[in-house]
Design brief:
The chain has about 250 residues and is mainly alpha-helical. Helices cover about 45% and strands about 10% of the residues. It has eight helices and five strands; from the N terminus they run αββααβββααααα. Strands 3-4-5 form a three-stranded antiparallel β-sheet. Strands 1-2 form a two-stranded antiparallel sheet. A hairpin with a 2-residue loop joins strand 3 and strand 4.
Length: about 250
């Protein structure tokens, strides 16, 4: 259905339909997953693995030549099954514990440049170090998703500021809780706190727009948050608990 008009379709799956993601995953299992495992990976001399969630994929290769070869053959594989690769969202980057060394060699500059980052499932993945000084991949909320989520919260607060304060705070708290449970992953606490502060700022502004007279100032606003507390940012997913099962991917 488009713009209220129903169309009879004889092929494809309905966008937003419950069966669509299931059928897509079954299809891509044969188009990508098995092909990569049984054909691509076996022919690689270096380590190779992939991570797929629906139609978002990350392919990792130890050997740069093999990464380039795969990047060139992937569109042909997809076209064979009536699919296309989004070229504007796809690229090859140097990433991992040796990425900075490669940049140093290429640029011949002391210190080199920072390895590139990539966004996947709402997180920016970047190369860093742990407390022990050893290499570790870290993640934080991507800038694009941060802005989009904040805009949704802002609009929701504007549209619902007429509610009784108690109900407004409870519903806002549930929305924040859901946000934390997705983005509350190791190394991302700073971004969660930033998001929480921005939501509080929008809440403060909108509560004062309920009437012509200001209802709150920054002195009594904390008292409101004590009476109707919002959930604080919290890490819900500890990646170190999964390292044994996922190995060096994490």
């Amino acid at each position: 259905m488009e713009e209220g008009i129903k169309y009879d379709t004889t092929e494809g799956t309905p966008q937003g339909g419950l069966a669509s993601p299931i059928l897509a995953n079954i299809y891509l299992h044969y188009v990508i997953d098995l092909w990569f495992e049984k054909c691509v990976r076996k022919r690689c001399r270096g380590a190779a693995f992939m991570v797929r969630y629906a139609d978002d994929n990350v392919f990792c290769f130890e050997n740069e030549v093999e990464a380039i070869a795969f990047y060139n053959v992937l569109p042909q594989r997809l076209n064979k099954f009536g699919l296309e690769m989004s070229t504007e969202k796809s690229k090859i980057i140097a990433f991992g514990r040796n990425a900075r060394k490669k940049d140093d060699d290429d640029n011949d500059v002391a210190g080199g440049s920072k390895p590139e980052t990539f966004d996947f499932l709402g997180f920016k993945h970047y190369c860093s170090k742990g407390r022990n000084g050893e290499f570790r991949v870290k993640r934080k909320t991507s800038s694009k998703k941060f802005r989009a989520s904040l805009l949704r919260f802002k609009l929701w607060i504007q549209e619902n500021r007429h509610m009784l304060t108690e109900m407004l705070m409870k519903k806002l708290g549930r929305k924040l809780q859901g946000y934390y449970q997705y983005y509350g992953i190791t190394d991302n606490l700073t971004m969660l706190r930033r998001f929480f502060d921005e939501v509080k700022r929008h809440l403060f502004k909108n509560l004062n727009r309920r009437s012509q007279r200001r209802s709150h100032n920054w002195d009594n606003f904390p008292k409101l948050l004590v009476k109707h507390p919002l959930p604080r940012p919290k890490i819900y997913v500890n990646i170190f608990e999964f390292r044994k099962s996922t190995g060096h991917i994490m």
